[in-house]
Amino acid sequence: LGAQLAAAFDAAVAADERVEPRDWMPDEYRASLVRQMAQHAHSEIIGMQPEANWITRAPSLRRKAILMAKVQDEAGHGLYLYSAAETLGTSRDELLDKLHSGKQKYSSIFNYPTLTWADVGAIGWLVDGAAITNQVPICRCSYGPYARAMVRICKEESFHQRQGYELLLALSRGTEAQHAMAQDAVDRWWWPSLMMFGPPDDESAHSAQSMAWRIKRHSNDELRQRFVDIAVPQAESLGLTLPDPDLKWNEERGHHDFGAIDWAEFWDVLKGNGPCNEQRIGQRRKAHEDGAWVRDAAAAYARKQTAQQVA
Ligand code: ACO
């Protein structure tokens, strides 16, 4: 029976059918999905911090309203993804415990500081731009709940990317000091954004298996290249430069060549040594502890409702 189930699973994946929560699936497939979806969900909620840092200092009411909506969207993305992960038989509490104890990762990008207002624009343009490039193919992921969650997330991320672009454009066309601030933000966020796609293909532990299972549709390097090709003309229309002297169009490849990424920095950030790792996880733990009374109150309310229904 085991072999029959495995054959049916392989055939469904090969035929591009969706795997649903009640379907049989290999334990390793389930574990790898929980790993990736949890990391993804954690990134969404940790990612609220660097931008929330600027809500109180947004330069106008309009910018403040946009930024608040965007940060709330990120919380929503986290919730869709935790719910999707729960369909694999794990609980949100368990996932949050693993985040808080450092057993599960979140994206390297959120361990960098937001030093100026222009960083809000650079995050929208580059970080959310990289996220969309990575996430659009996940809308076709073999696991149904993850694929469906991704559709709405990508629509919202597109709005985030455009607001970042528009913010940077306003700064770039502003005073000399505003232009310089926009350029400085792009200089600092460019390389970490390229690292978001994960290690190079020959060092990516999970890519081959995840692509065979159609969780991932493209390799880390393929998506990174796609992002560079999209970003270059956008930087030109923004009137900003990208901090890479080796960046140039390669006619033969039909892609842009780009300089070497500092992978030592990437692995170091993953180990917990980035500029803000401690602050991010410390703030997350504190928010969780401070929110205990809300969870207790919601649970007490739910118990009361159930008791009333029974009575
Ligand atoms: N930040 C932190 N950890 C990373 C990153 C990164 N940018 N890239 C790779 N890693 C980790 C992997 O999780 C893996 O660690 P693990 O074995 O402990 O899980 C290890 O480095 C090796 O990497 P890969 O084998 O290449 O891992 P994988 O095949 O899962 O690919 C990727 C990594 C591309 C990030 C994939 O998991 C993915 O597409 N995830 C969904 C998107 C996502 O998580 N986005 C979050 C940021 S975007 C946002 O929130 C706005």
UniProtKB/TrEMBL annotation:
InterPro entries per UniProt: Aromatic_CoA_ox/epox (IPR052703), Ferritin-like (IPR012347), Ferritin-like_SF (IPR009078), PaaA (IPR011881), PaaA_PaaC (IPR007814)
UniProt superkingdom: Bacteria
Enzyme class (EC, first level): oxidoreductase
Pfam families from the UniProt entry: PaaA_PaaC (PF05138)
Keyword Cell division: no
SUPFAM superfamilies associated with the record: Ferritin-like
EC number: 1.14.13.149
UniProt keyword terms in alphabetical order: Oxidoreductase
Coiled-coil ranges (or none): none
GO terms of molecular function: phenylacetyl-CoA 1,2-epoxidase activity
Descriptive protein name: 1,2-phenylacetyl-CoA epoxidase subunit A
Lineage: Bacteria, Bacillati, Actinomycetota, Actinomycetes, Kitasatosporales
Gene: paaA
